[in-house]
Amino acid sequence: MLKGLLAGSITMGVAAVFPEGLVFPVYASVLGIVAGLGPGMAMASQNSNAAPQWVETVVVMAVGLVGLWIDPFLLVLALVFQAFWCLFWPRTVHPDDVPEGLPAFMFSYALVSAAFVAYVGAAVAA
């Protein structure tokens, strides 16, 4: 969990030097990477069904991309949903195929990312 906080803080520090208009696309691509881990691990596992992971990834990415055009808080919502999905994730993939600390890492990373996007979104809206 602490590694996720550290990695999220590093990503936040890198994104903080970008112009405000680029922060949201950067975090949409981060969301794609984070969400794409689930289907990739499910497909690599021969003991699980990848369909729930694909459905979750498509929904999260759709909400995140709509957030780029309509309201950045939809991107925040997608990141928060992704964070909590990461806790549920080992139940959809065979538990032996998920590295032990990965769900906690992804949970904390996605929450730090969501908090930063919410902060930047509030600053831009003000």
The main pleated sheet reads as: none
Number of strands: 0
Please, how many domains? 1
Shape: globular
Low-confidence stretches: none
Description:
The chain is built from five helices and no strands. With 126 residues, the chain is mostly helical. The chain has one domain. α1 runs parallel beside α5, α2 (20-44) runs antiparallel to α3 (51-69) and α3 runs antiparallel to α4 (72-92). The model has no long low-confidence stretch (mean pLDDT 85).
Tags for this model:
single chain; 126 residues; mainly alpha; globular
Question: What is the strand and helix layout of this fold?
Answer:
Layout: H1 2-16, H2 20-44, H3 51-69, H4 72-92, H5 102-125
Helix pairs in contact: 1-5, 2-3, 2-4, 2-5, 3-4, 4-5
Short overview:
Helix content is 83%, strand content 0%. By secondary structure, it is an all-alpha fold.
